[in-house]
Hints:
It contains no helices and five strands. The chain is globular and about 35 Å long. It starts with 9 loop residues before the first strand and ends with a strand.
Amino acid sequence: MSSQFKKGQDVKQEFGGPIMKVIGFEPELIENVITQWEDEEGTVITGKFTESVLVPAPKQ
Length: 60
């Protein structure tokens, strides 16, 4: 199964939230897209999302 996203691509959740960078994939899981972003305090956060809730982030 191939993803519609690429490693290094900026994405966001369909209904808002932070701009995140795709850092990897776990194809065997439902939440198969691994992302990373930085919060307001500069803490790096890693999350896993189902591909269907993510959209490409607009260029900033």
